[in-house]
Amino acid sequence: MASFFDAPSVIDDIVSVIKRRRLDYDLPDDTHVVFIYTGTWGDLTMTMSSYASDSSLRLMAYIPFEPPEEKTPFIYLLLNRINAAFFVGHFAWCVEEKVLVWQSGILQDSVEAVTFEQIEQLIDVAVATMERFWPTFIRISWTDDTPEQALQFAIDTPLGRA
Fold first, then answer.
1. Helix (H, G, I), strand (E, B) or coil at 102
2. What CATH number should be reported for the domain whose range is 7-156?
3. For 103-123, how does the pLDDT look when each residue is reduced to its tens digit (9 = 90+)?
4. Is the pTM value of this prediction over 0.90?
């Protein structure tokens, strides 16, 4: 049985999921996969990485974000309010890299391999979260909305169809 720590096996499984979704990807090394997901609001660059040191599989989803400097305090307030609602995963704003990032992951402390379903779930949650909250960051950056008003937009706006 493959161990979680067998990075090539985990990476092979991630690549299989990405291929099924017909996404472009790159393998910078044997522990990372980088791929592009085209969402409603733009292209998300996603990285999935396997770390044997802490038995984790991590996902980071990036989108370019360069708001006006005067909006910085409001963006940090919005980040705090959004992140307070999550127990698994969080947003970060990388000012120097000019990106907004959603980060999440899973831990494995057994010898069982990461499943395709877990990989799919990490991707799906990242996409859904970015799709839901990206408009709040746009609103706070380019309108006079307060963090509460911008966040209310994400809460009130329905996603998908019934």
1. strand
2. 3.30.1460.10
3. 999 987 665 778 899 999 999
4. no
